[in-house]
From TrEMBL, chain A:
Keywords: Coiled coil. This is DUF6752 domain-containing protein. It holds the Pfam family DUF6752. It comes from the Bacteria. The keyword Coiled coil applies. InterPro entries: DUF6752. The keyword Coiled coil applies. Residues 30-82 form the DUF6752 domain. Residues 29-56 form a coiled coil.
Automatic annotation (TrEMBL), chain B:
CDD domains: AdoMet_MTases. This is Methyltransferase domain-containing protein. SUPFAM superfamilies: S-adenosyl-L-methionine-dependent methyltransferases (SSF53335). It comes from the Bacteria. Residues 339-396 form the Methyltransferase domain.
Length: 83, 522
């Protein structure tokens, strides 16, 4: 009798858990999708930031390395004036 | 099909799946496909509301005509809208007729453009394409409405409002596509063009016309990435490189232009399989996944710019007095120290500093604001240099920060902080740190949050209140030290924070290091 009751209880718990999962799963998946979309967007935004950084470095670094102050001034001014 | 017209818009009874053209007193203003744009009310009846951009004009009387594209008249009657006084006139400041374009903006259609001006636009578009293909070194081609007009009958579309050109990038990674766009922009500026960057992948060439307007020629990048073809504005899908290169030639009003290798394939990609049938009410149906990608890769640094430019343009010429904070800071600055006003707006405080004998550099990200500061300073004969600064873009921050460091200025900003994204605020602290490396402080005021409800601190929800603790943490994280902070109510805002910040030199600069090495060596 008690074995039957235990089995019935286990079965009832299983049904309840599956019902709860069925109810919660879509919400959890929606939340995860939203989070993933936000994270994907954050990663995409790095493309422009890396482009800006690379542009600044490649346009301005060489004259600075040459330690040519007049050229640095000229390059900086030209870079800024064409933004 | 029958059509009635009232304050709400058009009500169409019967089959409503074809484009309708609407004109006021004979001037074309708008087109719509009711089944797509409208709301179904009763079986067989659809209502299409007036576009928002037309709303400010819809007060008065007009003979409203609604026709099919073949000219069949569906409605032709005198209508009173709003209070119904006077004639409705949808025109710009110079009286040029305007119509709603395919992206919902009011613009001037070619049908209402003189032959002389049309020739100027076509010749200008040709020069832009030559410069892009020559010194710009990119595979540029005519596209969108101008290409469609050229292929249909060699003429501009009557309801089109501008010309667009594209180039196929040599690159497949967005980061390289953006760098290439920066390079091409520099070439175009060197060629003397007035350029306005819109995203990491497109910019506008502002072509001045003899009727006083500027024609906007969009220069859009196209590229293959992630297994898809992307073409700005927002197009994405499948189109082979061989449909674009090598370019062919099309003719528009007798002008030859480079065009995609297979113009029909490009037009089908852009406008869909029905591109041969005229549809002035056409709207793009771009895949949302493609828009998300393009937004993430290329956009997000100028979201509030149109609203600010509109605000400054609307307040053009309106007299302004110096702000309370501007006067407070001006009173404590050493004489003759150079001042940098960050987020200067139309220059109310920048001009005040200049009047007190300071040499002033004024920065703002809005072109109309910068233009007004220049005009006002020139008129008053004041030493103010006004330039654009986009704090969301590292290129501006690095180049301007480096330049300012040489003059050891005092930095000033009022109401700027609350306009910025967190990313732009981080750039502001970086810029301030660079600019004050040889001395000087940053004096700033912003609208602060408080315990109770407080009014919105700026025009049109463009300025947000900030938590002083958050600002303090950001400054500390950037290496800044707050010399002085006050939270107070002023005549202009019930709760502002006023700060003076310095960035002590934590790391010796190169010259210090060299000296140290020199001393050690001897």
């Amino acid at each position: 009798m008690s074995e039957l009751t235990d089995r019935a209880r286990r079965r009832a718990r299983g049904v309840a858990r599956r019902a709860r999962d069925r109810y919660q799963a879509p919400h959890a998946i929606e939340a995860r999708l939203r989070a993933l979309e936000e994270e994907a967007q954050e990663a995409r935004q790095l493309q422009r930031r890396v482009a800006e950084l690379t542009d600044v470095v490649t346009e301005l670094l060489i004259p600075i390395h040459l330690r040519d102050d007049a050229r640095v001034e000229e390059v900086l001014e030209r870079y800024r004036s064409r933004l | 099909m029958s059509v009635s017209v009232d304050d709400v818009g058009l009500t169409v009874t019967g089959a409503a799946d074809e484009p309708l053209l609407v004109s006021f007193d004979g001037a074309y203003v708008w087109s719509t496909t009711p089944a797509r744009d409208g709301v179904r009310q009763l079986p067989g009846r659809i209502q299409v509301g007036w576009p928002d951009v037309l709303a400010p004009y819809l007060d008065g009387r007009s003979r409203v005509q609604v026709t099919r594209t073949d000219g069949t008249v569906l409605h032709d009657a005198e209508v009173a809208l709003g209070a119904g006084h006077g004639r409705i006139s949808v025109v710009d400041g110079q009286g040029h007729p305007l119509s709603v374009d395919k992206v919902g903006h009011l613009a001037r259609a070619f049908a209402d453009t003189s032959e002389v001006v049309r020739e100027e636009i076509l010749a200008g578009t040709g020069r832009v394409l030559e410069d892009l293909r020559g010194p710009g070194g990119v595979e540029a081609y005519l596209n969108y409405g101008a290409l469609l007009g050229a292929i249909r009958d060699g003429r501009m579309l009557g309801h089109d409002t501008d010309t667009d050109v594209c180039y196929l990038s040599a690159h497949g990674d967005p980061v390289d596509v953006i760098r290439e766009s920066y390079r091409v922009e520099r070439v175009m500026r060197d060629r003397g063009w007035d350029v306005l960057r819109m995203s990491g992948g497109d910019f506008k060439i502002l072509l001045p016309l003899s009727d006083g307007r500027n024609c906007h020629i969009d220069v859009f990048v196209a590229f293959h990435a992630a297994g898809r073809f992307f073409q700005l504005g927002n197009r994405s899908g499948q189109l082979e490189r061989s449909a674009i290169l090598p370019v062919s030639t099309v003719s528009l009003h007798g002008h030859d232009f480079p065009a995609p290798a297979d113009p029909e394939a490009m037009l089908a990609f852009v406008y869909g399989p029905g591109w041969r049938t005229p549809d002035p009410s056409f709207k793009y149906a771009d895949p949302p996944a493609g828009i998300r990608r393009l937004d993430g890769w290329l956009r997000g640094f100028r979201s509030d710019m149109p609203a600010w430019s509109e605000h400054h343009a609307a307040h053009r010429g309106r007299p302004e007095t110096p702000s309370e904070f501007g006067q407070v800071v001006a009173a404590r600055l050493a004489p003759e120290v150079p001042v940098v006003d960050l987020g200067a707006g139309r220059g109310r405080d920048a001009l005040h500093f200049a009047r007190r004998g300071h040499e002033v550099r004024a920065y703002d990200f809005s072109r109309p604001a910068v233009a007004q500061v220049r005009r006002r300073a020139e008129r008053a004969g004041l030493p103010v240099t006004a330039e654009r600064l986009l704090l969301d873009e590292l290129r501006f921050v690095a180049a301007i920060g480096g330049q300012l460091a040489r003059s050891a200025p005092e930095l000033y900003s009022r109401q700027l902080l609350g306009c910025l994204t967190p990313h732009a605020r981080a750039h502001l602290w970086r810029l301030a740190r660079m600019a004050t490396v040889a001395g000087g402080a940053f004096h700033l005021e912003y609208a602060a949050t408080g315990p109770g409800p407080l009014p919105s601190p700026g025009p049109g929800g463009l300025v947000r209140r900030l938590d002083p603790d958050l600002v303090a943490r950001e400054i500390a994280a950037s290496g800044g030290v707050v010399d002085d902070q006050q939270l107070l109510a002023t005549g202009e805002d019930p709760r502002v924070a006023r700060l003076q910040v310095r960035w002590p030199r934590a790391v010796p600069d190169l010259s210090d290091l060299e000296e140290e090495i020199h001393v050690r060596a001897h």
